[in-house]
Amino acid sequence: MPRVSQDHLDARRRQILDGSRTCFARFGYEGATVRRLEEATGLSRGAIFHHFKDKESLFLALAEDDAARMADVVAEQGLVQVMRNLLDAPAGVEARALGADWLGTRLEVSRRLRTDHEFRDRWAQRSELLTAATRARLQWQHQSGNLRDDVDVDVLTAYLELVLEGLVSHLAMGLPAKHLGSVLDVVEESVRRHRGR
Question: Start and end of every HTH tetR-type domain (predicted)?
Answer without folding.
Answer: 10-70
